[in-house]
UniProtKB/TrEMBL annotation:
Main localization (coarse): membrane
Protein name per UniProt: Na(+)/H(+) antiporter NhaA
Membrane topology, from the record: Multi-pass membrane protein
Matches recorded under Pfam families: Na_H_antiport_1
Keyword Transcription on entry: no
Length: 438
C-alpha cells in the first residue's frame, strides 16, 4: 500500500485548533489596542501639544543607584517588551513540546518560512542602502520581524474563515521570527557587554528554573527572581528583552507526574500564558506603541523627507517585498524538497496572502530602529515613518488578496465546523479521511 504523500497546512488536532482560536481572540483585542495606542501617539505628536508628548516620553523613573533611572520610552522598550517576549517564549516552547508542531514535518514549514522572512528582507534592505553610505547598513534587521498582535488583528477582520492550519502557520511564523529578531538584537545590537552582570543573571535564572520545574506558582517567589534576571541582563548591556525569552523557555510545558501527568490539566507554561498574555497584548505592546510611534509628520521627518532616505526605502522594500518573497520562497522550497502537496482545500494564493501579511513589522521593527539609530534622531524618525508606511501597505495588500478568497474560506469553515453528532467537536476532527473539496 502506498503511503499518503505529506501535506502542507493539513488540518491539525481539535485541541490545537481550539487553543489557536483562543489565542487569536486575545491577540485581536491586543491588536486593536496597539492600533489605538499608535494612532493616539501620532495624533498627539502632530497636535499643538506635541511638546507635552515628548516631555511625557522623557519622564525618568527608577532607582539611580541601580542604573535604572530610565525614561518612560526606555521602560516601555526594555521592560514592557520583556513581558511580550516572555509570552512569545512560552508560546513557542509549548508549540514545539506539546502542540501540533512537535511533529518535525509540521514544524519545518513555519520555521523555514520565518528564516526566509528574516534573510530576504535583510538582504534587500542592504542592497538598497549599501550604495548610499551614511551608516545605514546597521539597520539591516529592522524589516525582519512580523508583529504578532497587528498581523493577527488584521487577519481576524479580513480572514475570519481562514482554515486553522494557516492561522497556526501565521502565529508560529510570527513567534519564531520575533525570537529570531531578539537573538539578532542580543548578538548584533549589544554595543557594550559587561560579563559580570550577565554571569550574575544566571544565579536568579537558575533559581527561577528550579522553582518552576517543581511547579511552584507563588508570585512572591518567582516575580523577584524574574525582576533580578531582567535587571542584571539590562546592566550587562544585552537588551533586557532577552531576559523575557530566557525566563519563558525555563517554564515547563507538561504537568509533573505528581500532579497527575499531562492529561490532568494545563501545565505551568499554559497557566503563565493565560495569566500574562492579557498583560502583554492589552498593556505592554499598546503602551510601547504609544510611546514609540509618535512622529511629527509635518516637520523635517515628514513622509516626503523620510521616504527619500535610503534607509526608509530599504525598510519599506524589506517589509512589503522582501517579507512576502522570503516567506513564499522558503515555503515552496520545503514543499519542493519534501515532495509535499498543498492541502486540497487551499491554494498558493492563500499562502501568498499570509506572506504579505507577514510584512506587518510594527513592534519589533520600531524597537530595532531605536537600537540601530537612536530614539529621537533624524534617521530614527525616518525609520518610524518607514515602518508605519510599510506595515500599512502590507496590511492593505493582504486585505485585497485575502478578501478575494473569503468566499472559499467560508465554505471550508462550514465544512470544518459541522457537528452533526452534537458532541461539541466538529466532525472533521473525528474523520480519518481529509475533507474533499466539495
Amino acid at each position: 500500500m502506498t503511503a499518503n504523500p505529506p501535506r502542507l497546512f493539513s488540518r491539525g488536532s481539535w485541541p490545537e485548533a481550539r487553543r489557536i482560536a483562543d489565542i487569536l481572540r486575545k491577540e485581536t483585542i491586543g491588536g486593536a489596542l496597539l492600533l489605538a495606542g499608535a494612532v493616539l501617539a501620532m495624533v498627539w505628536a502632530n497636535s499643538p501639544w506635541s511638546g507635552s508628548y515628548e516631555a511625557l516620553r522623557a519622564v525618568r523613573v527608577g532607582p539611580a543607584a541601580l542604573h535604572l533611572d530610565l525614561d518612560l520610552a526606555a521602560w516601555a522598550a526594555d521592560g514592557l517588551l520583556a513581558i511580550f517576549f516572555f509570552v512569545a517564549g512560552l508560546e513557542l516552547k509549548r508549540e514545539f513540546v506539546a502542540g501540533d508542531l512537535r511533529d518535525v514535518r509540521r514544524a519545518a514549514v513555519p520555521v523555514a518560512a520565518a528564516l526566509g522572512g528574516v534573510i530576504v528582507p535583510a538582504v534587500l534592505y542592504l542592497a538598497v542602502v549599501l550604495g548610499a553610505g551614511g551608516g545605514g547598513a546597521k539597520g539591516w534587521a529592522i524589516p525582519t520581524a512580523t508583529d504578532i498582535a497587528f498581523a493577527l488583528a488584521v487577519l481576524a477582520v479580513i480572514g475570519r474563515y481562514l482554515p486553522s492550519a494557516l492561522r497556526t502557520f501565521l502565529l508560529t511564523l510570527a513567534v519564531v521570527d520575533d525570537l529570531l529578531a531578539i537573538a539578532i538584537i542580543a548578538v548584533f545590537y549589544t554595543a557594550h557587554l559587561s560579563p559580570l552582570p550577565l554571569l550574575g543573571a544566571l544565579v536568579p535564572l537558575a533559581a527561577f528554573t528550579w522553582l518552576v520545574q517543581r511547579r511552584v506558582r507563588s508570585w512572591w517567589l518567582l516575580l523577584p527572581l524574574a525582576a533580578a534576571v531582567w535587571a542584571l541582563v539590562h546592566a550587562s548591556g544585552v537588551h533586557a528583552t532577552v531576559a523575557g525569552v530566557l525566563l519563558g523557555f525555563a517554564v515547563p510545558v507538561a504537568r509533573s507526574e505528581q500532579a497527575g501527568g499531562p492529561q490532568a490539566g494545563p501545565g505551568l507554561a499554559e497557566h503563565f500564558e493565560h495569566r500574562f498574555r492579557p498583560i502583554s497584548a492589552g498593556v505592554a505592546v499598546p503602551v510601547f506603541a504609544f510611546l514609540s510611534a509618535g512622529v511629527a509628520l509635518g516637520g523635517p521627518s515628514g513622509p516626503a523627507t523620510a521616504l527619500a532616505d535610503p534607509v526608509a526605502i530599504g525598510v519599506v522594500a524589506g517589509l512589503i517585498v522582501g517579507k512576502p518573497i522570503g516567506i513564499m520562497a522558503a515555503t515552496w522550497l520545503v514543499a519542493r524538497f519534501t515532495r509535499a502537496d498543498l492541502d486540497e482545500n487551499l491554494a498558493w494564493v492563500d499562502v501568498a496572502g499570509l506572506a504579505v501579511l507577514g510584512g506587518i513589522g510594527f513592534t519589533v521593527s520600531l524597537l530595532v530602529g531605536e537600537l540601530a539609530f537612536g530614539a529621537g534622531t533624524g534617521r530614527g524618525e525616518h525609520v518610524k515613518v518607514a515602518v508605519l508606511t510599510g506595515s500599512l501597505l502590507a496590511a492593505l495588500a493582504a486585505t485585497v488578496i485575502l478578501r478575494v478568497r473569503n468566499r472559499a474560506y467560508r465554505r471550508i469553515h462550514e465544512i470544518e465546523t459541522a457537528d452533526r453528532d452534537h458532541d461539541s467537536i466538529p466532525d472533521v476532527y473525528q474523520d480519518d479521511q481529509p475533507v474533499n473539496d466539495r
